[in-house]
Design a protein that fits this description.
Layout: H1 7-10, H2 19-40, H3 51-54, H4 59-91, H5 100-110, H6 116-126, H7 131-139, H8 154-178, H9 182-190, H10 195-223, H11 227-233, H12 240-249, H13 256-288
Keywords: Cell membrane, Membrane, Transmembrane, Transmembrane helix, Transport
Protein name: ABC transporter permease subunit
Pfam family, one: BPD_transp_1
């Protein structure tokens, strides 16, 4: 009599739950990326060429990349500094314990708040006719425009990006701060180290890979953001995501394959930033285990 076939020996049922993830990742991440990479090296007739990559060496495209890099760098740097200070206050600082859960909950929501709603919120608050802008002008005679503030500019976009960059920093760096062992601080105190000496010689060196890795992640997060930039500034700000969006709409760059090359350049930059994050994150986890 033949033995019954056990299904679990031939089909690992425990993997069925993650099949939707792999399907979505392949259809909406891997497949479009491969299509863009291949299109960046093809002619409109389907042949192989490097002309699209060479075509990126134009003033408009290079300036768009450079401005995107500056905006991403400053939003990532400021997001790291402010987010680290806030995370340190609720972990190793003397801030009330009851503030941690509300801050973490808000960070989880705000880190995903972007696009048109975020742009509208900032325009309605600190835009040219925003609530705070008009209040300061009428009540205190402070004209933000006279001090150089312009929401519809590169620095206005940086400030807007901070709304989701700071919470993302808090969410990522808080577990690293929690990983600092109390024994390290106590041992440093026994040996006569002050608080600043502990952070300079022990705390920050251990957390530095996590901080730098998170900064790389925030850089990639800002570099690929397109909906917020378009909703806030429109086509007047020459950054890579807006230039690519204009290409998709057919407003500029008559060669579609040049648009693929533009997207390929963005993939390379964000990919490098994410690779740096993964590498530094792995280094920091070895210390915090």
């Amino acid at each position: 009599m033949a033995k019954p076939v056990i299904l679990s020996q031939h089909l690992p049922l425990r993997w069925l739950g993650v099949l939707p993830f792999f399907a979505f990742a392949f259809l909406f991440l891997i497949l479009p990326t491969l299509y863009i990479v291949i299109g960046a090296f093809r002619t409109p007739q389907g042949g192989f060429t490097f002309d699209n990559i060479i075509g990126l060496n134009t003033p408009t495209i290079l300036n768009a990349y450079w401005l995107s890099i500056k905006i991403s760098f400053w939003s990532a740097l400021l997001g790291c500094v402010i987010g680290f200070a806030m995370a340190a206050a609720i972990t190793v600082g003397n801030t009330a314990k009851g503030l941690r859960n509300p801050l973490m909950t808000f960070s989880g929501v705000a880190s995903n708040f972007a696009g048109v709603p975020l742009a509208f919120a900032f325009i309605a608050t600190v835009g040219p006719a925003g609530i705070i802008t008009l209040y300061l002008r009428t009540e205190f005679g402070i004209n933000l425009r006279a001090y150089g503030w312009n929401l519809l500019s590169a620095w206005g976009l940086i400030v807007t990006y901070l709304f989701f960059q700071i919470p993302l920093m808090i969410l990522i760096i808080t577990p690293a701060l929690d990983g600092l062992k109390r024994e390290w601080r106590e041992a440093a105190a026994i040996l006569g180290a002050t608080g600043p000496q502990y952070w300079r010689m022990i705390g920050f060196p251990i957390l530095l890979p996590s901080i730098l890795g998170t900064m790389a992640l925030l850089f990639a997060n800002a570099f690929g953001a397109v909906a917020t930039a378009i909703a806030l500034t429109g086509p007047q700000l020459n950054i890579a995501p807006i230039l690519l969006f204009s290409q998709i709409r057919g407003d500029v760059l008559g060669n579609p394959n040049l648009g693929y090359a533009l997207a390929f350049g963005m993939i390379v930059i964000t990919g490098l930033a994410n690779a740096v994050y993964i590498w530094l994150r792995a280094r920091s986890e070895r210390w915090l285990k």
